[in-house]
Design a protein that fits this description.
The complex is a heterodimer. Chain A is of the alpha/beta class. Chain A is built from 15 helices and 17 strands. Chain A folds into 2 domains: about 190 residues, NAD(P)-binding Rossmann-like Domain (Rossmann fold), CATH 3.40.50; about 200 residues, Dihydrodipicolinate Reductase, domain 2. The two termini of chain A are about 25 Å apart. Chain B is built from 6 helices and 12 strands. Chain B is α+β, with helices and mostly antiparallel strands. The chains are: A alpha/beta, B alpha+beta.
């Protein structure tokens, strides 16, 4: 297992000091975490990656659970960390319950490339991982090594090396009895669960095919600033670099691909696909594609068609459809006969799945029956990567090829400074087995 | 581009409706009065967003007095004549603002208006885009759209106040309450909409010549205390609740599934039933040197 072994993260020393001064006013005074203050029934939580999603996960974790405390947070960038603290303090001001659970102190706020290590060194039981996906395999490995339960955002890797690392972490986490829930929140959505349970019970007969979609307009980007190095610019625009996001088919469409794997009960065996970059061609959009169309072949010759697009002014749709010998379904709310007759429609409770996933995680820890979703989300991540690679390379890519591929897209060393942008993948030229800048074009 | 599905509307018909409403019928019982002040200078017109082919129609609505019942009780409010958008603002117009699509250079001040963040997902839910009402937009986003629209067109557009909307709705309903049959003709509601929005102006126009004032998307209005309020009901409202009196205050459920903190300033993660229409105070018509 060579994943991560050669990846160095160079800490920019002044980052931590700057953050400490500026954030002091936003957090509790130090000394609160001294031994003796720990209540045995409280689950203590650290957070790595405090952008909008990480902050949202903190809020959702606290809404979902009693007797939890957020006690440490880390982010690469001091300004992002300060913004998160300001936003979270605003929530605390209007929400007493949240305020009682948000217990970050000036001793437990960290920035820089090693912030994740500092967070994991704190006296915590559970860690929320919400950085850009490229860093996830490293953070998951470190969290499992440290014996922490995990809530990890999706996807969990961007390349084959990363997925292999995560699968190894899964095995170790099983041995250690750690609970791991992934941010593929549809798995915790009661409506999806009810419909897919019925599909598995044969409500549409044998599944014969389907389609999954995430088609939408373009997303945000941050214009470069003179004080930002290349590395900082790329990480602050992480969506647009495959080493950070995995490209949008992995970063975003993994949700729908995960539903396909869930419905099918397994991962596909091969993929053929196409894609390209037609509307987001400017350098500010890095080197990712803006559209993909992939045919995933599952066992028994069942094909699921996948489409993912981020192009302004085009038809948008996010969802799934599956067809069987005796019906069809959107997997979320409805099951119909092939003539459209309604067979089943979910009308039960519909709690917020972004909150429910945190409730399910903590409940499983307290029940002594830890959920471990890491293998499932690693497989859905690899499925999405396989789709991306089918489009990038133009080749038919099998599951076994993808899983074994010598593919490691992370820069050999990550530090603030000059950093090239990898080329745009060219079907017929780009190699499945490739490195940071090698094998693209 | 004309807004898809808008039927050509005859202004003379509005005049006839006016005569019927305010000459022949005692209007006090309809909770509103209209003197028609200023209407002589106002005619329907079509506003085109410069640098695009996108346009929308504006319809004069006379002023009057309206009884507004809110949380603080009932007050009698005087409202002036206004142009009301014939339709809810469509994605065609909203995208130009939201995605900065205009092809002509515009007033730098318009360029400086903050634009909505890019949504992570599809705020139109895939129900339809061109010709469909913009939806899932916050009150702040609707207000920013009006500010931008005013700067690019040179005409001052804004959201209606709650009293202005209610006054127009009372006239539009042609007397209260609206019959179930009439509601079906002019409004998309829970009973006929199939759980989704529809292209604007696909139902019949109301007595003022406005489309979808009731149902389809509920419409942002400016309330007295600035709290976010919609009027008119939506495709999710039962038929009896798409009416002039239909009022909803934004609550946390409208942003329940926003996974980000802070929740978006611009998008309602769970508000597909919310949109808006614009109004304009009396002034010169487009193309008349104003």
């Amino acid at each position: 297992m060579k994943a991560n072994a050669g990846r160095h993260f160079t800490r920019r020393e002044f980052v931590h000091t700057t953050a400490a001064a500026a954030t002091a006013a936003l957090v509790l005074p130090g000394g609160l975490m001294a031994s003796g203050t720990r209540r045995a029934d409280v689950i203590r939580v650290g957070v790595i990656g405090c952008g909008g999603r990480g902050s949202g996960a903190i809020r959702d974790h606290c809404r979902a659970n009693t007797d939890v405390e957020i006690v440490a947070i880390g982010d690469l960038f001091p300004d992002r960390l300060e913004q998160a603290l300001r936003n979270l303090n605003q929530v605390a001001q209007r929400d007493e319950d949240f305020a009682s659970k948000f217990r970050v102190t000036e001793d437990s706020v960290f920035t820089g490339f090693d912030a994740y290590q500092r967070v994991l060194e704190q006296d915590i039981d559970l860690v929320i991982l919400a950085t850009p996906p490229g860093f996830r395999p490293l953070h998951i490995a470190a969290a499992v090594e440290a014996g922490k339960h995990i809530f990890t955002e999706k996807p969990v890797a961007v390349d084959a090396a990363g997925v292999r690392s995560v699968l190894a972490s899964y095995e170790l986490a099983l041995q250690k009895g750690l609970a791991i829930v992934a941010g593929t929140q549809r798995r915790h959505d009661l409506s999806y669960r009810a419909v897919i349970e019925r599909i598995h019970d044969g409500a549409i007969g044998e599944i014969t095919g389907g389609q999954v979609y995430w088609n939408q307009a373009g997303l945000w980007h941050n214009a470069p600033r003179p004080e930002w190095s290349d590395t900082e610019w790329q990480i602050r625009n992480w969506l647009y670099f495959t080493w950070l996001s995995g490209d949008h088919i992995v970063e975003q469409h993994v949700h729908n691909i995960d539903v396909a794997n869930w419905v099918m009960g397994t991962h596909p065996i091969r993929a053929v696909g196409m894609g390209g970059r037609q509307s987001r061609t400017a350098p500010e959009f890095g080197h990712i594609y803006d559209h993909f169309a992939v045919d995933f072949e599952y066992p028994n010759g069942v094909h699921i068609m996948s489409m993912a697009r981020q192009v302004d002014g085009t038809a948008g749709f996010v969802g799934e459809r599956f067809f069987g010998t005796n019906g069809r379904t959107n997997a979320e709310t409805r099951i119909e006969r092939l003539d459209g007759t309604l067979v089943y429609e979910y009308d039960g409770d519909d709690p917020n799945a972004y909150v429910q996933e945190h409730a399910d995680l903590v409940a499983s820890i307290r029940a002594g029956q830890p959920i471990n979703e890491l293998r499932q989300v690693a497989e859905s991540t690899l499925t999405a990567i396989m789709g991306r690679e089918a489009a990038y390379t133009g080749a038919e890519v099998t599951w076994d090829q993808m899983l074994a591929a010598d593919q490691d897209l992370m820069p050999p060393e990550i530090r603030f400074g000059p950093l090239e942008v990898p080329p745009v993948a060219v079907p017929g030229t780009t190699k499945l087995e490739r490195r940071w800048l090698e094998g693209w074009a | 581009m004309r807004i898809a599905g808008v039927k050509t509307f005859d202004w003379r018909l509005v005049a006839m409706v006016w005569t019927a409403l305010f000459a022949a019928v005692p209007v006090a019982s309809a909770q509103t009065t209209g003197q028609g002040q200023g209407l002589a200078d106002m005619a329907p017109y079509r506003e085109t967003i410069p640098g695009t082919g996108v346009s929308f129609e504006m319809i004069p609505v006379p002023g009057g007095t309206v009884e507004v019942t809110g949380p603080a009780g009932t007050t009698s409010v005087e409202v002036g004549p206004l142009w009301f958008g014939a339709t809810e603002i469509t994605w065609d117009a909203y995208d130009i603002f939201s995605l900065s699509l205009a092809t002509e250079p515009v007033d730098p001040a318009a360029d400086a208006v903050a634009r909505p963040s890019r949504p992570y997902g599809t705020p139109d839910y895939g129900w339809g885009h061109a010709g469909f009402p913009a939806m899932s937009v916050t009150l702040a986003a609707a207000e920013a759209f009006c500010e931008w629209l005013s700067l690019v067109t040179g005409h001052r557009y804004r959201l209606p106040t709650e009293a202005e909307w209610l006054h127009a709705a009372t006239l539009a309903a042609g007397g209260l309450p609206m019959s179930a049959e009439r509601a079906d003709e002019i409004a998309w509601h829970a009973g006929n909409a199939g759980g989704r929005t529809h292209a604007v102006a696909d139902r019949e126009p109301d007595a003022l010549g406005l489309y979808d004032l009731f149902g389809n998307v509920a419409e942002w209005v400016v309330s007295d205390d600035g709290s976010p309020v919609t009027r008119g009901g939506s495709f999710r409202s039962p038929q009896a609740e798409v009416a002039a009196g239909a009022r909803a205050e934004q609550d946390p459920s409208w942003t329940e599934r926003d996974p980000q903190l802070p929740s978006s300033r611009w998008w309602l993660s769970d508000g597909p039933f919310v949109g808006f229409r614009v109004v304009r105070e009396p002034g010169p018509l487009p193309g008349t040197g104003g």
